[in-house]
Amino acid sequence: QSALTQTASVSGSPGQSITISCTGTSSDVGGYNFVSWYQQHPGKAPKLMIYEVSNRPSGVSDRFSGSKSGNTATLTISGLQAEDEADYYCSSYTDSSTLLFGTGTKVTVL
Amino acid sequence: QITLKESGPTLVKPTETLTLTCTFSGFSLSTSGVGVGWIRQPPEKALEWLAIIYWNNDKPYRPSLSSRLTITKDTSKNQVVLTMTNMDPVDTATYYCARKRYPAYYFDYWGQGTLVTVSS
Fold first, then answer.
1. Residue B50: what pLDDT?
2. Helix, strand and coil in chain B, % to nearest 5
3. pLDDT for residue B55
């Protein structure tokens, strides 16, 4: 069971927008609208940021948005802020009735 | 307020069995649709889903580790226990428990994690 593929690192200046991609297959990302995104600061537990492709849990900033096209899901962070610097992981349900995480993306705020 | 907390040994020897306990509050595993899962993260590496147990005792496991994993629940104690047999140094990781609801496919509340090192 391979991990979903994410860009290793993305950087941007404060106020800019960045996108993080998560590529899978038709057996996971492409086959279901069950993609979620997690933010993880160093030494901390992951935090749910987006669920079911584009939904934000209560309390998550609307600067975070999600979308999907084919086998690739995307997390967009607009108005980048210093506190957004963290690792981000995508996750998807699979047709094996399991969950798969992505390889992770390190976001750096310049 | 929903909280989860992992507990267990910080150091295990190769070939030993690891037993981790997740103690939670703010929800019940006897409530329809509720589940608790385990996820691990080797140092400087990605997250890896291990297992989930649901209110109805359904227990999906990560296929590559299914022969080594057992997940159980004690509803009266609000606890979920994960055992992993035949531990190896590559199993060194921070182990997290987290809440999941069915038929959703995401973890909405996470514990702080516990680092388990496998070394002789």
1. 97
2. 10, 50, 40
3. 96
- A100 contacts B105? CB cut-off 8 A: no
Q: Which residues, given as ranges, of chain B have pLDDT below 70?
A: none
Torsion B34-B40-B114-A44 (CA) sign: negative
Task: Determine whether the interchain pair B105/A57 forms a contact, defined as Cβ–Cβ distance below 8 Å.
Answer: no
CB interface of A with B, residues 9-68, below 8 Å: 32, 34, 36, 38, 45-48, 51-52, 57
Q: What is the mean pLDDT of chain B?
A: 96
Residues 21-80 of B with CB under 8 A from A: 37, 39, 45-49, 52, 60, 62-64
Residue type, B101: R
Q: Which string of DSSP letters, residue by residue, matches B54-68? A: ETT----B-GGGTTT
CB contact under 8 A, A99 and B112: no
Q: What is the mean pLDDT of each run of 10 residues along chain A (110 residues)?
A: 90 96 96 97 97 96 97 98 97 93 97
- DSSP annotation of A51 reads B
From residue A15, give the alpha-carbon distance in Å to each of A81, A83, A95, B1, B60.
7, 12, 38, 33, 42
